[in-house]
Specification:
Oligomer: single chain
Helix content: 40-55%
Distance between the termini: 21 Å
Shape: elongated
Number of strands: 7
Radius of gyration: 21 Å
Length: about 160
């Protein structure tokens, strides 16, 4: 799997995203178009706050539709394969800057409904951990330029 272009999703997460996509495309677009048309009928568009708010909402919706389309098209769906190596779909327990943390390396969508923090495989921490196993030590550069040391305590597949 190419981490930068593919997203690992459980079947449940994929179905949830597909349902959201279908709702936005089949229902949401029509509703917002109707709202924009109703606001346009009110007259002067320069000073019509309702019209501009509806257009802003439409732009947000279209951005979400594009994001969902990209995720769904590039998703790898199913159970994560696990050989002890950290990859997308792995729950990691690690010591980060002297503090023990438990988090998921992967997509926020699969962790929905859990109390796990999520770091994408493209984040500095996630990228530094990819390919490592329990007992490994690594470091990464934080956005502020500071080197952060990480020791992997445990790694396990995400089960939901």
């Amino acid at each position: 799997m190419t981490e930068s272009t593919e997203t690992w999703l459980t079947q449940e997460a994929y179905d949830r995203l597909q349902a959201e996509y279908d709702q936005l495309v089949n229902v949401g677009r029509g509703e917002i178009a109707k709202e924009i048309d109703e606001r346009r009928q009110e007259g002067d568009l320069k000073e019509n706050g309702g019209y501009h708010a509806a257009r802003d909402e439409q732009a947000k919706m279209e951005a979400r539709i594009q994001e969902l389309r990209r995720k769904l098209e590039t998703a790898t769906v199913g159970e994560a394969t696990f050989d002890g190596t950290i990859a997308s779909g792995t729950v990691v327990t690690a010591e980060v800057m002297g503090r023990e943390m438990r988090f998921l390396v992967g997509s926020r969508e699969i962790a929905e409904g859990t109390d796990l923090d999520v770091f994408s495989a493209q984040s500095p921490l996630g990228a530094a951990l990819l390919g490592l196993k329990a007992g490994a030590e690594t470091s990464y550069e934080a956005p502020n330029g500071k080197q952060i040391t990480v020791t992997v305590i445990a790694a396990e597949p995400f089960t939901g």
